[in-house]
Design a protein that fits this description.
The chain is an alpha+beta fold. The protein has one domain. The protein is built from three helices and six strands; from the N terminus they run βαβββββαα. Strands 1, 2, 3, 4, 5 and 6 form a six-stranded antiparallel β-sheet that branches. Strand 5 and strand 6 form a beta hairpin. The longest helix is centred in the C-terminal third of the chain and has 28 residues. It is elongated.
Length: about 170
């Protein structure tokens, strides 16, 4: 049976003001590509309201560590009241977005995702013993990798959004 351990739970970034939604999406995509993640888009909803666009995006990128373990990040982006504005930057007019955006990041470690240890009850028992005692240093290393990657993308997005506060 697949075992999913939550390593990072609800790292949040909120921002309200002027920013570029396209560049925000590009920052996330570039980071995922750079770190070797396969991107899976679970949900992409866009509603147009009188106040602007409301966007909900749910990404679950994953990276295979070994044949036994893989990392899954859960990235949820909720943008409310997104409108397009023109600002002047260095003498040229640039189209940007204005509104509020909230991102949350979760990190999971998934073990035995190919169900190789589920054939017989003795295999399940042996897997539990190996996970708790023999493979514990490896599992702790995998959990540290999940925490590091989730923290890295959180910091990358937070730094990107903080750039707009001072423009």
């Amino acid at each position: 049976m697949v075992e999913t351990r939550t390593v990072v739970d609800k790292l949040r970034v909120t921002y309200e003001g002027i920013f570029s939604m396209h560049e925000l999406h590009a920052v996330i995509d570039n980071w995922l590509r750079e770190k070797g993640y396969d991107k899976m888009e679970k949900k992409n909803v866009e509603k147009v309201t009188p106040k602007g666009k409301d966007i909900e995006l749910l990404l679950q990128p994953w990276k295979k560590i070994t044949d036994y373990a893989k990392i899954i990040l859960n990235i949820r982006l909720i943008a409310i009241g997104i409108t397009e504005v023109e600002i002047e930057k260095d003498g040229t007019k640039v189209k940007m977005n204005q509104g509020s955006v909230q991102l949350s990041f979760d990190g999971w470690l998934v073990t035995d995702y190919e169900n190789r240890w589920e054939g017989k009850p003795i295999f399940f028992f042996l897997r539990q013993l190996f996970d708790r005692y023999v493979f514990k240093p490896y599992t702790m290393g995998y959990e540290n990798a999940v925490a590091k990657d989730a923290g890295d993308i959180y910091g990358e997005v937070k730094a990107f959004l903080n750039l707009y506060k001072y423009r």
